[in-house]
Amino acid sequence: MSIGRNDPCLCGSGRKYKKCCGKREGAAIVPVLVEEASAIQRELIDYAMENHSAMLKKEFQPLLRSNETLRQNEQVFLVTFEIWAILTRTIKENETILTKFVKRRVPSISRQRTAEIVSSWVDYRFMAGVIESCDGPVYRVRDILTDEVYSVRALRSVDLVGAFVTGALLPHESDYTFFMTDFHFEAAHAEAMAAAVRNMFNESAFEDTQDFFTHDFVGVMDTLFAVYEKGHAAVDLTTLMWAKEAQKETAAHMEASFEQEQYGQPVAQMAVLLWNYYCSKEDPAVRKKEVFTAAMIALLQAHELLDVKESKAAIASRYGISAATLSKRQKEMEAVLEEKLQAAGSGQK
Q1: Beta strands per DSSP E along the chain
Q2: pLDDT given at position 17
Q3: pLDDT confidence band for 1 (50 / 70 / 90)
Q4: What residues form DSSP beta bridges with 8?
Q5: Angle of CA points 133, 229, 149, to nearest 5°
Q6: Alpha helices of 130-262 — where are they, by DSSP H?
Q7: Which pairing describes strands 183-185 and 138-143: parallel, antiparallel, or unpaired?
Q8: Looking at residue 204, what is its pLDDT?
């Protein structure tokens, strides 16, 4: 006999099944639901890039001119733009990329709970707030504009109490998850960032916070970067998700190497974000961190995202690998990252 999650529990308690006996069953499946929903988020991003790239490019160009600080952090700018555009920009029949994707994708999702989660994404919310507490992979965030408290579920345990965080929240049953990523800033700067966002909202023409973010989420991010820019990494890269520990260790090696090479913090951050995206697509096995760091340097040079220019042989020699190995990895990474690298390059011109 099957029973729906909202049906009365068979034990006779009078409560809904999902709040009674189904609760124990539900706890075990939560990580599965989070992983499935995360995979479908990645599908949504691919769908947007494959089917609506012309519209996205048209929307992107004016923002390059009007958000100077964010433009200096190319890869973060692209992520910010993609979040905003996929959720808010309308296409045919006044639908957004999100609503069109949900309508097409939900019928093919086999697990009912996952289908219900994805269906609920159309009720997304933008949010800027401070993390008040962390309980394993779930943290509570207080919105600095509405004073609402959100329960946000991450893929892994985090301990970021006091940090300022912003992004777009997608409903996930009784909790939320961030779409694509959340942007964390150190707790020491939370007060200044909260004041900056409140000031923007108060000076805007909007009374509703969601209208405000929908109109100018990219501008909000640009302001936050301006507040935080001097002497600090703009985003806490330690919050990125990695399928393998070796990939995370490679990210740390890459960031440290870029800083040692004096390429600058924005470029180091861009490299790590590109590496994270590549890992999410290819899940590479890492045997030697230096190979991928050297390949990233060569790749950014090839796309004129580094001010220096040197031969592959010189880069390979410095990192103790062969030029052939570097070239092989560079080509593999470029095949996945080509579009993002081109967009980042256009942002510098």
Answers
A1: 125-135, 138-143, 149-153, 164-172, 175-178, 183-185
A2: 59
A3: very low
A4: 16
A5: 25
A6: 190-203, 209-228, 245-260
A7: unpaired
A8: 94
Compute CA 196 distance to the chain's CA centroid, rounded to the nearest angstrom.
22
Joined together, the tokens standing for residue 242 give: 């990695």
Q: Are 28 and 22 in contact (CB under 8 A)?
A: no
Query: What type of residue is 120?
Result: S
Predicted confidence (pLDDT) at residue 347 exceeds the cutoff of 90:
no
Residue with tokens 């923007």: 200
Residue 292 · residue 278 · CB < 8 Å:
no
Q: What is the CA radius of gyration of the chain?
A: 21
Residue 93 Rama label (left phi>0; alpha psi -120 to 50; beta)? left
Residue that the structure tokens 């160009």 belong to = 61
CA 111 – CA 35 distance, rounded (Å): 13
Q: pLDDT digits over 59-71, tens only?
A: 887 887 777 777 7
Dihedral over alpha carbons 263, 284, 37, 40 (to 10 degrees): 90
Of the pLDDT bands very low, low, confident and very high (cuts 50, 70, 90), residue 140 is very high
Under a CB-based contact definition with an 8 Å cutoff, are residues 184 and 120 in contact?
no
Q: In angstroms, rounded to a whole number, what is the distance separating the alpha carbons of residues 270 and 326?
A: 19
SS3 201: helix
Question: What is the crossing angle of helices 53-66 and 323-348, to 10°?
Answer: 70
